[in-house]
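User: Hey, my collaborator sent me this sequence without any context and asked if I could get a structure. I don't really work with proteins. Can you help?
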Amino acid sequence: MAIHLTIMGHISTKINYRICRTAELWSDEDDISWLVFLPESEVEEADAVAIINAAGITFSGEKFVVLADIRNLKSISGEARAYLAGGSAERIHAAVAILVENTATRLLANFFINFHKPSRPTRIFSDEQKAIVWLKEHLASKKNENNARNCAG
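Assistant: No problem. I've predicted the 3D structure and written it out in structure-token form, which is a compact way to encode the shape of the chain:
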């Protein structure tokens, strides 16, 4: 299913759109996967499991880059943070840009990175366009690695 939307004057398409209790997921035409938390979301471990399961179905195949928009997030349990930082997410995420809006969401993102220490590249942004540029850089390097691997073997 594809849904069209306008972001900052740019018409974008939501490809493989899914919605869970606390978040929406989709990919766009630039191969960026979006995870956008719904307003006032209170994320528990079961929600994190549902999000990763939906992502695994939606974006099956190779690891993908994700823009995690937590600007609407109200809270997230320790168990949910641990699950999102752990092996299930590690298997499907190549890089994660966390989009924040205020001090509260920046503190949540900093705590997630500093306490859970995800092994994939993870960075915090307050500017959506800068987050997209950073993710596109990771996509380009991932494609170059895949091309080199295909030529070698």
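In plain terms: Strands lie at 2-7, 10-19, 23-27, 32-37, 41-43, 64-69, 73-76, 93-99, 122-125. You can pass these tokens on to your collaborator as they are.
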